[in-house]
Each structure stands twice: as structure tokens, then as C-alpha cells.
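Researcher: Next entry in the queue.
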Amino acid sequence: MLFRRMFHVALVVGLGLLVSGCGSSKSGEPGKAEKPRIALIMKSLANEFFVTMANGAKEHQKAHAADYELILNGIKDERDLDQQAALVDQMVASGVKAIVIAPADSKALAPVCKRAMQAGVTVINIDNCFDKAVLAEAGVTIPFVGPDNRAGARKVGDYVATKLAPGSPVAILEGVATAFNAQQRQLGLEDAMKAAGMTIVGTQSAEWETEKANTVATAMLGEHPELKAILCGNDSMALGAVAAVKAAGKSGQVLVSGFDNISAAQEMLKDGRIVATADQHGDQLAVFGIEYALNVLRGGKADADKETPVDLITAETLAAKK
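Model: Structure for this entry, 322 residues:
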């Protein structure tokens, strides 16, 4: 099972995966329009969230095979900005009509997306919002389709705060510092902690990664033995924090929260190792972007952002769904 999953990830990351219905994208029939090809360019497929996103996109294309073809791409390392930019150029050269992108950086990927638009390709931004000032300076409008990350993180932080005494020392593990969603989630968690009167003793980036989060959280626990909670900007980092808490012999004494609602986090919610996360409906996030792109290709406008849902997930909400 692990080998099959690794092979799937390698295929998608390295070459791109064309998902289509039967037959060619060119009908060969006079007067019949060519089926558009849409590229989905994600961040690291080593992260379960983006595997979920890819699977949701594939299911949508399967259900709408007559409407479009889908090319899936992702990068191995969320910090590999050059590779993600190269994927955009490759997709433009291949003749796609639209690109739906979850950029690894909110600023650095804007220029290559501008080039794509100048080449006549529709670009839709999902997951991590492009920096609006950078887009304005470039003279382009790229609509963002995704959740309010600050509000989602605030929901998580507010819930964690109900489990703590006022003034409790807490720490925050943030994602890649140049990513807008990482910045917004950090702000949301800070909003919640400040509103509840908690003491934030440390904030540090673990770059979305489990292993790095484990290292950072271990150091934080050593430096602040009185720590009562570690709030993480995504679930992958929360997994690392949980392992650090366990290794320090503080399970049940230091609360951990995340963001994304991946399956591994759901299991830990059930037994209390993680107390809360946020669900931004990863299986539908790319779908929202693809549907926006299809609407533009059919003559609609690409001039407005579209906010998508984000929900608080706890052991109680999981139990209520049964």
C-alpha cells in the first residue's frame, strides 16, 4: 500500500497526471468545441491535505468528463518555488486553458502567473492567497477561491482557550513564513489567545512539516516546561508536536491543536492527543477553483474572490457526525 501511494505521488509530482474521459480532447467534428484542459498545480503531495485535494479534483473531473480534462501537478517540497514556477510555464507551453494554483509562496509565484495570463491562460488562486499588493503592482487580478484562514484559526484558538486557565503559557507553530495562509492562521491563533488572556511565550515556523515541528516543539517544551498548549498552523505540524509532547512525558498536560482535518488528526482527536482542528474541506477546495475556471472559460468574469467554508472540528463534532 505504501509503495503504491509513493509511486502515485512520484508520478503526479514528476510528470503530471492527465485525468480525462474516453477519447481525445479534440472532437474532430466540425462546429464542436474542443474540451478545455485545466491544470491543477498544488504544493507538496507528501502532505495528506493535498492528496485529498487531488482526489477530490479527480472525482469531480470523472463526474464532468464531458466538460473538461484535468492535469494534476504538485511539488515534492513546499519550499521549492522554482519547481512550482517551472510547472506553471510547462502547463502554459502544453496549451492548457486554465491553471488552478495553490502557490507555495504568496509573492514569488505572482510573476509566472502573470506570464500565464498574458499567454491567454485563465488563472485561479486557491488555498494560499496571492499578496494583493504584489498583484496590484503587477497590474493583474487573480481571484482567490478559499477560506478565511484567520477566522478558521480563531475558531480553533477560541476552543483551545476554553480548556485553559487565563494566563496559561502557550506556543504557536506557524507554517512557511512567506505564505499568506500561514500568516493569517498565526494571526487568528494570536487573536484567540490574546482575547482569552493567555500568555504567548513563543512563536516559531516549522514550515508545515511534521519532523521540523517535532524538533521545534521539543525545544519549546525544554525552554518552557510550564507550557500548557501548542497551537499549530496545520495538522502535519500538530502530529510532530504530539510526538514531542509524548516524548517529554507530558501527554494530557500540554494541549495540541492543528488545522486541515486530515485523517491522522481525526484519530488523535478521538483520543485527545489533538483537541481541535479546522476543516477547510480539502476534497472540495480545488473543485471550487475548477468550477470558477470553467465559468470564466464559458464567458464569466474573473474579478471577484470567493470565500469557501471552514469549520471547527473537535472530538464532539466528530461524534455528532456518526
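Model: The chain has a mean pLDDT of 91.
Researcher: Noted, moving on.
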